[in-house]
Amino acid sequence: MTTGKLNFSWLLLMGLTLSGTLMGEYAQPGFWITLGIAVITTIKGRLIIDQFMELNQASPVIRRIVRGFGLVVPALMILTYLLGSELAALTQLPG
Amino acid sequence: MPARIPGNRAIWVGIFAELTEFTLMFLVYFFARINHPQAFHEGPQKLSLAAGTANTVIMLTSSYFVARAVLAIRRNQSDISLRWLVAAFVTAVGYPVVKVLEIRWNIDHGVVGGGDVFQMSYYYLTFNHLVHVSWGLLGLAWIMFRTFFGGYSAGNHSGLLAFASYWHATDLIWLMIFPLFYVLP
């Protein structure tokens, strides 16, 4: 971790947060907007994990678990957008 | 050179417990979302996007300040590290302040805990996160106290690293909560 990398990561995180806010203000439901929000969430999470937490240089077990956590929400955003009604049907009790 | 286990093993047990807890809550969120799509489509429009954005900026900036404190202690600059920690604390106190203002705004606009499934999920997840931030603030106060009395140096700052790891993990969780309740239509 260097000062320059940290500063750049923070600026990028601010820019991505503002993008997310604009999406929240104007976005209508749709695949591309869902994908965009999922990608922004993934990038922000990865910046925290690799640059702030420095897990890119840490134990592989810790790194994989935390990186995996950072993918759960973005993956479920896309999955539930594409297959929401099918998944809802699977989670209903019969009768 | 960063440690392969940042901080200590104990804090990582706590962080993994925290991540597991929120993963389960995220699964509940998506279960509710697929079964009540209309409530979750309309939900973000009822919340204050400004409050959600403000708390995102607060969490990210406080996390950045803590990372700068770690950099400073690696250079054996204890006084500079303390200044970054104070900046992190002052910034992070803004989180519960914004939360209080947000909840007042919510109540005025009919967003209450006994509302629809979106509102219940929102309160459950964000209150849980607020609890974790509150623990973090107490931890940060302790780390500032230790730094003030020369408890850390370039060769020995695992306590500071342990706190930093917890704080960044709590920030990471907020980065997942923010789009789910304030952005995703």
Please, how many domains of chain A?
1
What is the number of helical segments of chain A per DSSP (H or I, 4+ residues)?
Answer: 3
Percent helix range of chain A: over 70%
What's the β-strand tally of chain A? 0
Radius of gyration of chain B over alpha carbons?
18 Å
Can you walk me through this structure?
The complex is a heterodimer of chains A (95) and B (185). Chain A has one domain. Chain A is 81% helix and 0% strand. Chain A is built from three helices and no strands. The longest helix of chain A is centred in the C-terminal third of the chain and has 31 residues, at 60-90. Chain A is flat. The termini of chain A are far apart. With 185 residues, chain B is mostly helical. Chain B has one domain: Four Helix Bundle (Hemerythrin (Met), subunit A), CATH 1.20.120. Chain B has helices spanning 9-35, 37-46, 49-74, 78-108, 117-148, 158-183. At the A-B interface, helix 1, helix 2 and helix 3 of A face helix 1, helix 2, helix 3 and helix 6 of B.
Outline the fold blueprint.
The complex is a heterodimer of chains A (95) and B (185).
Chain A: H1 3-26, H2 31-52, H3 60-90
Helix pairs in contact in A: 1-2, 2-3
Chain B: H1 9-35, H2 37-46, H3 49-74, H4 78-108, H5 117-148, H6 158-183
Keywords:
heterodimer; A: mainly alpha; B: 185 residues; mainly alpha; Four Helix Bundle (Hemerythrin (Met), subunit A)
Outline of the structure:
Chain A has 95 residues and is mainly alpha-helical.
